[in-house]
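Saturday, quiet lab. Running sequence design on the structure tokens for the scaffold JK sent over.
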């Protein structure tokens, strides 16, 4: 027993050290202008929930990522002579994606703080605006300046400069950090928080589209080098930064920013399916988004379950084998995967392993969910095999059946009946937990829900639709599994 524990401990340390060491020793190289030109495309990372900087809009019958930042990026790509590729993900995943080489630059209304400059390079500031605080319209008499939020709860987008300055300049303020602005708006309207710190253009965009919201000028004291928006690059990308700065200089010289903001405002109104009077389409008119997200969710869950079953069966047999090494490897894998959050696993595979090999977001999501599911299915199958009496194996072998045939025709069919309910629960869990892949920009149901929320400025209705869709998926699967469980019980 002691020897087994030592083997497991050594294997666990080897796996952990190899993972840690691999991520430390391999770094993505800087992106040069020549690299971008040779690839023929400029890949930008953004978080498209921040109008008028960047946001989703339904234009010409299809979903597009548009806004002031996108117009700037389009000009930069045109000046360089390449096509523009946009990758949308959570804001706090943008810099990891940049450092992992998933994108060439990040343009997302990002402030070039001293802390960020330690890990990435920045362009010149292309837009400078104040910091506003969104409040409920009913609270206009309560909150008139930033000091009024002392002891109150302010919402901020995680990883932003607004989070830092609010903590430093408002005494005893409490913070709620979320990754998406629509989630913060929902928290504000449902009175979970008292205000949201946003840059002036974004604050104005949200307030102008919701009569229940208002804003005040935060009048935060900001360092001149940190105030404003700039484009982020990997360290050492001097040639690309120089080229981008040339485009920014032209934008400033030609005074294009006001034109870009005006264009973004027009896209905002059109993208909502509305008009100047503020009339908008009903939530179900955005059914294409929900249908697309549902398709991705089903696809990811189906593929992940198939791979998970195969992996789980192999791991279960390894854990039941007579080989100490096989048992040790399988045991370490199961304990490690079950002992770490799936969100970290998804991010590790996409970002950390992405430094070594460029894995697309969808594939990374499927791999992570499959590996996670395999660990749980392993234990389900192992318990099912152990539940079959050892006498079944002995009886089959005494009749001349080989070990493989015995497992295939005698043991596995009986074990399957025992584990079917638990296996069904795992299938349902995968459908729901696969939503975590939205953090790396995979267009599953949760991702599309956030897109619709950002387009319509209606935080509750898209969630209600998504709840119904998930219920239909899981309820239908439950009925299907119960049907086959009944058939097996009658066999």
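Result came back. Writing it out in full:
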């Amino acid at each position: 027993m002691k020897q087994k524990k030592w083997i497991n401990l050594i294997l666990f340390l080897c796996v952990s050290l190899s993972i840690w060491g691999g991520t430390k020793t391999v770094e993505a190289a800087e992106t040069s202008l020549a690299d971008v030109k040779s690839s023929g495309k400029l890949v930008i990372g953004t978080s498209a929930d921040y109008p008028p900087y960047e946001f989703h809009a339904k234009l010409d019958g299809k979903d597009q990522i548009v806004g002031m930042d996108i117009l700037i990026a389009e000009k930069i790509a045109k000046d360089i002579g390449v096509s523009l590729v946009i990758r949308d993900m959570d804001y706090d995943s943008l810099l990891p994606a940049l450092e992992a080489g998933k994108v060439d630059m990040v343009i997302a209304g990002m402030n070039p703080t001293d802390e960020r400059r330690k890990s990435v390079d920045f362009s010149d500031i292309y837009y400078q605006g104040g910091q506003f605080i969104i409040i409920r319209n009913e609270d206009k008499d309560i909150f008139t300046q930033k000091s009024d939020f002392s002891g109150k709860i302010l919402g901020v987008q995680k990883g932003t400069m607004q989070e830092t300055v609010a903590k430093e300049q408002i005494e005893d303020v409490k913070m709620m950090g979320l990754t998406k602005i629509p989630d913060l708006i929902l928290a504000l309207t449902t009175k979970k928080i008292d205000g949201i710190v946003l840059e002036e253009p974004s604050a104005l965009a949200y307030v102008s589209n919701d009569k229940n919201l208002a804003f005040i000028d935060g009048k935060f004291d900001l360092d001149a080098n940190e105030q404003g928006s700039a484009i982020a690059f990997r360290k050492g990308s001097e040639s690309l930064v120089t080229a981008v700065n040339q485009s920014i200089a032209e934008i400033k010289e030609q005074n294009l920013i006001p034109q870009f903001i005006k264009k973004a405002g027009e896209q905002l109104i059109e993208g909502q399916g509305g008009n100047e009077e503020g009339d908008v389409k009903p939530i179900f008119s955005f059914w294409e988004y929900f249908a697309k997200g549902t398709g991705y969710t089903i696809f990811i869950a189906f593929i992940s379950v198939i791979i998970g079953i195969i992996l789980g069966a192999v791991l279960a047999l390894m854990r039941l084998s007579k080989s100490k090494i096989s048992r040790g490897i399988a045991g370490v894998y199961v304990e490690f995967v079950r002992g770490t959050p799936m969100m970290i696993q998804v991010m590790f595979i996409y970002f950390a392993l992405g430094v070594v090999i460029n894995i697309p977001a969808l594939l990374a999501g499927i791999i992570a969910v499959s590996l996670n599911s395999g660990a749980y299915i392993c234990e389900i199958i192992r318990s099912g095999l152990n539940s079959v009496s050892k006498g079944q194996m002995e009886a089959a072998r005494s009749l001349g059946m080989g070990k493989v045939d015995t497992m295939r025709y005698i043991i596995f069919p009986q074990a399957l009946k025992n584990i079917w309910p638990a296996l069904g629960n795992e299938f349902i869990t995968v459908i729901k937990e696969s939503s975590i892949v939205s953090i790396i920009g995979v267009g599953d149901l949760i991702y599309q829900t956030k897109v619709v929320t950002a387009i319509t400025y209606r935080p509750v209705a898209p969630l209600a639709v998504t709840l119904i869709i998930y219920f239909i998926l899981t309820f239908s699967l439950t009925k299907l599994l119960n049907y086959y469980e009944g058939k097996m019980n009658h066999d």
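Notes for JK: The chain has three domains: 30-128+227-275, 131-217, 286-489. DSSP finds 18 helices and 13 strands in the chain. Ask whether to fix the surface positions before the next round.
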